[in-house]
Write a structure and sequence with these properties.
Number of strands: 0
Mean pLDDT: 82
Distance between the termini: 122 Å
Low-confidence stretches: 182-187
Largest sheet: none
Strand content: under 5%
Number of domains: 2
């Protein structure tokens, strides 16, 4: 023999079918889960927003519960800080002062003062028992002076300006609601 050692070789037959390649692995669908999470977040945010709006609305409602005289005092304070008198803008000053008093009377006594002329308003108040005769006289003097400045270009003296401001303040002071009634109304709301 020639010194050759026989070896056996095993091989796969080419006669068998070749299998197709495997497709990509599929992961379980999480789309539904993600949509649920997003919907839950949106609902929570909406609840927070609604709660915030309700809280603010209640706070605004409580802030708006100022009495007519409190509103008028604040407006008088703001008017005195505007400097109309120093700049000699008497028409603007008396227009605002008259507006403050008329709004006060409307809010306090439900009189449509801002919508009426001075004469119409004084005629309405004349027959009304809401104001005392002293208050009616004070109101007539105040509104007459205001009209002179606003419409007749009357230049009031410093004394007349101070007197008008004090008349407005006095009218508000003497006709303001009693605190007991005001607190009762606030508590009912």
């Amino acid at each position: 023999m020639t010194g050759v050692t026989p070896y056996t070789i095993n091989f796969a037959s080419i006669q068998t079918d070749i299998r197709d390649i495997k497709g990509p692995l599929s992961f379980p669908s999480r789309t539904g889960f993600y949509l649920s999470v997003i919907a839950a977040i949106i609902v929570v945010l909406l609840i927070i927003k609604v709660a915030y709006l309700i809280k603010n609305k209640i706070a605004q409602k409580n802030a708006k519960l100022k009495t007519p005289h409190e509103i008028a005092y604040e407006a008088l304070e703001a008017l005195s800080k505007k400097g109309y008198i120093k700049e000699e803008k008497f028409k603007e000053y008396f227009t605002e002062l008259s507006f403050i008093v008329r709004n006060y009377l409307e809010n306090r006594f439900n009189l449509r003062a801002p919508e009426m002329t001075t004469q119409e308003f004084l005629l309405k108040v004349k027959d009304d028992s809401l104001l005392s005769n002293e208050h009616k006289r004070l109101l007539k003097e105040f509104l007459s002076c205001s009209d002179l400045v606003k419409f007749a270009k009357y230049g009031p003296s410093e004394k007349e300006v101070d007197s008008s401001f004090e008349s407005a303040k006095k009218l508000i002071d003497e006709t303001k609601e009693e605190e007991k009634k005001t607190n009762k109304i606030k508590n009912e709301l």
